[in-house]
Amino acid sequence: MTIREQTELQEQQHLSPYATKSVETKGRKHPMQACDLRTNFQKDRDRITHSKAFRRLMHKTQVFISPEGDHYRTRLTHTLEVAQIARTIARALNLNEDLTEAIALGHDLGHTPFGHTGEDALDSLVAGGFRHNIQSVRIVESLENNGAGLNLTYEVLDGILNHRTECTPQTLEGKIVQISDKIAYMNHDIDDAIRAKLITQSDIPCHITDTLGQTSIQRIDLLVRNLVETSMGKNDITLPPGLAQVLRELRSYLFETVYVNQLHQKERNKIQGMLKLLYEHYISNPEELPEDICIRMQASQGADDFELTRAVTDYIAGMTDRFAMKRFEEIFMPASWSH
Questions:
Q1: Is 74 helix (H, G, I), strand (E, B) or coil?
Q2: What distance in Å separates the CA atoms of residue 339 and residue 279, rounded to the nearest whole number?
Q3: pLDDT category, 189, cuts 50, 70, 90?
Q4: Which residue has the higher pLDDT, 322 or 64?
């Protein structure tokens, strides 16, 4: 019996009846030989971690654009915090921790440069709109590994696609990541907003801090404990209704005071204008796209407007903050200005 088979047997014997077992996966788009050491979900986790898109997350903004200071979250640190919270919940509920971790590590691969400001910019430019969860799936299915994709299991793809609030993951592990994402970003965005002097601790409505706690550590601990207690032994992942309502109120507060703060609207306009100019430039000059993208376009009849639009969207969405600014300077600023 291989190590993988031993792990699969342990899952069958010890995980919750509501857990998603590795041997019960609906499979991959392209069948592949089983690994002697790792289960299907462990293999997915490793493929995501070693992908180029995952490495780029370290240079993508979470909320604050080009923050001065080393302690602000990036898209990568957010992803790791989500994975940690989600794994804790999955372990406590005796669900599949490996599947949970794989979904958490891959859920934000499709985020644009400059956080939600960049996503809003592409959403306004692309016919049909732009959603980072859909782009995340596109990355792991069609863009990574020189266009071959990562060939992930159905369950991991489902969790990545459906981690947004309005979606419904088909596994409990996916639901864990969905709520862990909110627990993570709401709490660490408060920390970053206080650090940036956008708000103070006393600005947060008292009924929210009285219910959830005064610090991010207290709030995360309270939410995780209550989530585990409410979901234990059930085929669902839920918070007590009262806490769920307060969490929604905290999210609304953050959107009103942090995410669309008018003090930073001028910077948001700059970013959106920069991405718009980059997008229009590459649509008009597709020969300047990277060689690998041009080759893929030619292979799929690149003269088609949809293929060009899709290629430019993929290229800009995959940029890091600093790479986007570098490209903008190279294209639109006289060389003497950048020295």
A1: strand
A2: 25
A3: confident
A4: 322
Q: What are phi and psi of 318, to 5 degrees?
A: -80, -10
Which residues in the chain are classed under CATH 1.10.3210.10?
A: 38-113+130-260
CATH superfamily of 38-113+130-260: Hypothetical protein af1432 (1.10.3210.10)
User: What does the alpha-carbon distance between residue 108 and residue 89 come to, in Å, rounded to a whole number?
Assistant: 19
**∠14-101-187 over CA atoms, to 5°?**
120
- Each as own residue / partner, the long-range contacts of residues 289-293 (CB below 8 Å, 24 or more positions apart, any chain) are 289/315, 290/315, 292/146, 292/147
- Which residue, 291, 316, 289, 286, is CA-closest to 304? 286
Measured distance CA(339)–CA(49) in Å, rounded:
36
What global pTM score does this model have? 0.94
Q: Are 282 and 294 in contact (CB under 8 A)?
A: no
Side chain identity at residue 242, one-letter code: G
Closest among 28, 33, 49, 39 to 4, alpha carbons compared: 39
Sign of the Cα pseudo-torsion (280, 281, 287, 290, in order): negative
Question: For residue 302, what pLDDT is reported?
Answer: 47
Single out the residue of 246, 267, 249, 247 nearest to residue 257, CA to CA: 249
Using DSSP, state whether 285 is helix, strand or coil.
Answer: coil
